[in-house]
Amino acid sequence: MRKILLLLTFLALGLTSFAQTEFTTAQGTESHPRYITNKFWDNWFISAGVGAQAYLGESDDQLMFTKRLTPAFDFSVGKWIVPAVGFRVQANGFAFKGYTYNGNNAYVTGTEENLFKQEWDYLNVHGDILLNLSNALGGYKTDRFYSIVPYIGFGMITTLNEDPNDKEFSLNGGIINQFRLSDAVNLNLELRGAFFRESFDDEILIEDSEGMVAATVGLTYNFGNKEFKRYSAPAPAEPRLISAEDLAKLRQQVAAEQARTKQLQDELNAEKNKPKPAAVEKDLTAAALAIFFNIDRANLTAKEKINLKYIADVINQNPNEKFVITGHADKATGSAAHNQKLSEKRAQAVADYLIQELAVDSRQLEIKAVGDTQNSYDTPNLNRVVILRQ
Fold first, then answer.
1. What are the φ and ψ backbone dihedral angles of 10, each rounded to 5 degrees?
2. The domain 289-389: what is its CATH number?
3. What is the dihedral of CA 2, 53, 198, 89, to 10 degrees?
């Protein structure tokens, strides 16, 4: 039994390697044709089968093989990835029948010919790698009547009896003989076996593994897109020969574009080399600016600072011009001496803001203060002012 288990393990590794190679070649090496991989829901199938099975335990070979046969059932769901490689998940089970010399075995149900008869229920669920040898070796054919599909897989086998409830890893392998009935339906004759630890039948003697064999007949239904399309590379474009006449036209077009490019470059250089026009000095004549103050105050309001910003731009654009700042005070409030000092502070406040905040050259400014001697308006608040003029 150990040699058989080791052989199946090597077979599993070999099939896995072959399946990986087949999948790679089907995607496009030179030694195999390439096929277009279908969408996820294509090439799926479901299978169901019934048949017979037998358990291979330590003492079971003491009686005839046919006396140990029990019904077998299986159900599978799988998908073909490429024409020769696929996978499936299968659940198979029902009941095992065996024999033992141990009357205390948990599965003993009676005696028969000096042996104790065993019987227990089980379920084996395993995932398998499928290899369609007919497609791999004989080429992909959608109408092939018979295909041989070996497989190898691993899973878990468990007893369904309450005492004991044993679970073991299982190594599964077999051959599916597939007969095409239509595009959607196949008839299957499946021969399979499984190996697991010897304690699965609640009996441990000498061998360290045991197993089962089964043969079932069933049907497979294929759904989704069932065919793979062979990949064909697009034919390379044929080189187009250019006639002498077309070549001459192309050369003329290139020469015209080069001439146009040179013309534009010359126009750009001429524009860059034009002399820059002299700066035009703005004339501030008759454009006097009035900066108003609150009663008995010499500080600038935010509104008046904005007005000074505009006049500062004009002053800076006319560096050769002089501008006069004249401070005033209204005679309706305060003494003449007080108003004189107040007008001086107002004129100085305007000059300081222009010089310190707005970068006006102080040499362009002349500061005067006339107190309340030149009130031009009857309304007192209009005489609380600084006049800035050229």
1. -65, -35
2. 3.30.1330.60
3. 80
User: Any idea where the domains of the chain sit in the sequence?
Assistant: 2-230, 289-389
Q: One-letter amino acid identity for 167?
A: K
2.40.320.10, 2.40.160.20, 2.40.128.110, 1.10.150.120: CATH of 2-230: 2.40.160.20
Q: How far is CA 172 from the centre of its chain?
A: 38
Q: HSE on the CB side for 172, CA within 13 Å?
A: 27
Does pTM surpass 0.90?
Answer: no
Task: Tell me if residue 232 falls in helix, strand or coil.
Answer: coil
Residue pLDDT, tens place only, 18-73:
544 444 444 444 445 667 777 888 899 999 999 999 998 878 777 788 888 999 99
Which residue type is seen at 179? F
Q: Do 170 and 155 form a contact (C-beta atoms < 8 A)?
A: yes
> Which two tokens mark 60?
């079971």
- Separation between Cα atoms, residue 175 and residue 146, nearest integer Å: 13
DSSP state, residue 34 = -
Contact between 125 and 170 under an 8 Å Cβ cutoff? The reply is no
